[in-house]
Amino acid sequence: MKFLIPLVSLSLVFICGCGSGGGDGGGSRGSARTGARVLNTAIDLPPVSLSTSAKVGETISTVKFAEATGFAELPEGEQTISVQSVDGASGPFKFSVSIQNQDRPQILVYGLRETNGINATLLEFKKLEIPDGFAAVRIAHGAAGAATIQGSVGVSELPAVVSFGSASKYLFVATGTTLVKLTRSADSKVITNQQVQVDNRKAYTFVVSGELDYLVIGSLLED
Amino acid sequence: MGILFIFLSSVNFVYADQESLLKDKNGDQTVSILAFGDSLTYGIGDGLAPGAVVEEPSRESSPGGYPKRLQTLLGVKVTNSGVPGEQLVADGSDRFVRALRSSSADIALIMAGSNDANLQVSLSSYRNSLQRVINAASALGRLPVLLTIPPPGGNKLPLRPFTDSFTREQERAAFFNQLPLADIARAFKTTCKNINNCELLNLPEGLHPNSLGYDVMAQTVSATLYGIDIFSENGATDLAVALGVSPSEIKVLPDLAGVTKSAALSELGNY
Description:
The structure holds two protein chains of two kinds. Chain A is mainly beta. Helices cover 0% and strands 54% of the residues of chain A.
């Protein structure tokens, strides 16, 4: 027989005063030196799983919609990485990659099942040289309902519109708090207006997920 | 140098092997629930006893149904966000986001599909809409809990194949998203004496539960939120202890042979 046990829990929280201070801007970074991450931006898609031909039969990561995850570890070398919805109905989307020297590819999963279907893009993932005093930020566009978006990160305007299912080039922005402003190109409808924290010589992907006029989530993830 | 903070965070009700889902997710020091759905959430047909002849239950009533009972049983705030006649695929999923944004609920109970079944919307559209609301709830920091639909009977018996299909979609969604499922359909199947003319429904109308039916729904949801398998041999006793009531007050019957467990769930177990 089971018994109900009311437990009054005491939570102990240690806040460390050491370190560089400041947040990571919402980013989350796995411990893997080489790894991959899925950006699941499709609002009507179940979680997606990531696997690699280098680890046959193993799911190395499962990612929910708009979930900020770290990088799942990948071995170095040539391999095919695959993304598929956990119900098996979307994908697999396969990408051949050569992983070396701390490469960490990201796959943007986007679209709507109900209308045009789901697709996936492998985002550029070579390591950047970032000047001191700056961070690098790019925009990954997965918000359905906007064929292209435009905007700025801090004082830097995006040099070109960003198409649905793609990412912009990296912009170098001054470290600290910065404002990400994005609008739909067609009618300047505001998609997000979000302050984020970026740290010195770090690279980030700001990903917009969901669907305009329903729910859009903006997340800054450390690359 | 570290600074130590100690604070009283919450009261967690823990069972021998399962844990309550009633947790303060948003840190506002309270646990609250949003019950989202259609007329079966609003509580149409409530207040009518088994045996009453009901051709069409009144739609003039105030909200009641299982959310009101749940609030009493659990002692937490439960907001009734049921809109009679609403389809999930039409207006429901949009309203869901608005309702969540205007609520501080930690848990979103989702029971929708009766009107979609009535209008025979496609299974894929229902599946996609259900996934949209699940994703929206999770992205907004709420715990989605899915509720299956009571099987229609009486005059609405022809709707059964459609509601059964939607119930299987809810089971699939719970499985693939690893979410809790309050299996109302199974509770009706174990508890009704005759599922085609179930005494938990207003008859002969056959779609909306009566007072007894809403009791069964509230108890089934309570068990899910407490992490209790209401269909197990000890389920009713465990729930009675959790709720502080007599076991004789638990109206949901167990499913000892497992015969009413969905075939879909068994298949998914092999996924």
